[in-house]
C-alpha cells in the first residue's frame, strides 16, 4: 500500500522531511516528490503550492507516476464553525469547492456543472475514523477534533461576512485552498482520501495575523496526526 501525502506549504511537509530516514527526491516536470518508507508504509510526499490547480496537478501526478493507493492532505485552515478555535482540528467528512459559480446559468453556487460526479466529495470512512482517532490521541489540553465539511477555493478568506456565507451556503466547518481539488481527483481515480486541517485562524479580519502566528505550530500538529494515522493503517 503506497500513501500519497500532500501539503501546500513548506511548513506543512517539513515535519516529514525531518522525521523520515530514507528520502529519495524525484522530479516530475517541475514538481518535487519525496519517496521513502515511514511507519512501515511506502509514502510519497510533496509540497504542491497554494491553490486548487497546484493541488489537483500534484494529486494526479502521485496517482499516475507513483501509483499511490490513497491520498492524505495535511495542513492548516480557517475556521467557519463558531465552535472551532485556533489549534482545533477538522477531519474531512466531505469537501466542496466554494468558488465554482455558474449560478448565471441556473446552477447552484458550488455545484460543478456538466460533470459525471458529485460536487461535494465524500472522504473515505476508514481514513476518517482512523484520522479522528489519531487526532484525539495527538491533541492535548482543551483542543478538540471534529469530523466536518471542508470547503476550498482560490482565496484566502479574511472577512466575517464571507465566513458566515460559507457556513450558511455550504454548511462548511473550515475553509482552505486545496482540499476539495484533491478530493475531486481522488473521486475520479477511485482512490480513498482524507483531509486533515488544524485551525490557524478564524478567516475573519484578524486572519492574516493569526495565520502568521500559528501556521508553523498548527501545520506541525496536522503532520503529527498524519504520523499517528500511518501507524493505524
Ligand atoms: N488556510 C488557512 N487559513 C485560511 C483562510 N482564512 N482562508 C483560506 N485558506 C486558509
TrEMBL record:
GO terms for molecular function: adenosylhomocysteine nucleosidase activity. Transmembrane segments: none annotated. It is an enzyme of class 3 (hydrolase). It comes from the Bacteria. Its EC number is 3.2.2.9. Residues 2-230 form the Nucleoside phosphorylase domain. Keywords: Amino-acid biosynthesis, Glycosidase, Hydrolase, Methionine biosynthesis. Pathway: Amino-acid biosynthesis; L-methionine biosynthesis via salvage pathway; S-methyl-5-thio-alpha-D-ribose 1-phosphate from S-methyl-5'-thioadenosine (hydrolase route): step 1/2. This is adenosylhomocysteine nucleosidase. It comes from Evansella alkalicola.
Amino acid at each position: 500500500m503506497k500513501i500519497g501525502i500532500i501539503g501546500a506549504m513548506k511548513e506543512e511537509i517539513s515535519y516529514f522531511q525531518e522525521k523520515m530516514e530514507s528520502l529519495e527526491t524525484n522530479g516530475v516536470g517541475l514538481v518535487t516528490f519525496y519517496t521513502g518508507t515511514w511507519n512501515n508504509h511506502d509514502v510519497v510526499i510533496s509540497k504542491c503550492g497554494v491553490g486548487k490547480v497546484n493541488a489537483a496537478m500534484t494529486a494526479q501526478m502521485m496517482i499516475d507516476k507513483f501509483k499511490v493507493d490513497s491520498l492524505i492532505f495535511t495542513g492548516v485552515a480557517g475556521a467557519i464553525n463558531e465552535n472551532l478555535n485556533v489549534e482545533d482540528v477538522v477531519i474531512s467528512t466531505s469537501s466542496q469547492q466554494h468558488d465554482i459559480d455558474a449560478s448565471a446559468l441556473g446552477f447552484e453556487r458550488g455545484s460543478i456543472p456538466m460533470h459525471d460526479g458529485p460536487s461535494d466529495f465524500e472522504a473515505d470512512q476508514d481514513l476518517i475514523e482512523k484520522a479522528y482517532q489519531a487526532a484525539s490521541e495527538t491533541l492535548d489540553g482543551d483542543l478538540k477534533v471534529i469530523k466536518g465539511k471542508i470547503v476550498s477555493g482560490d482565496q484566502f478568506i479574511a472577512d466575517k461576512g464571507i465566513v458566515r456565507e460559507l457556513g450558511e451556503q455550504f454548511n462548511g466547518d473550515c475553509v482552505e485552498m486545496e482540499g476539495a481539488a484533491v478530493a475531486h481527483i481522488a473521486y475520479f481515480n477511485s482512490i480513498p482520501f482524507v483531509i486533515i486541517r488544524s485551525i490557524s485562524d478564524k478567516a475573519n479580519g484578524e486572519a492574516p495575523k493569526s495565520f502568521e502566528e500559528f501556521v508553523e505550530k498548527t501545520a506541525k500538529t496536522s503532520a503529527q496526526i498524519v504520523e499517528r494515522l500511518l501507524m493505524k493503517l
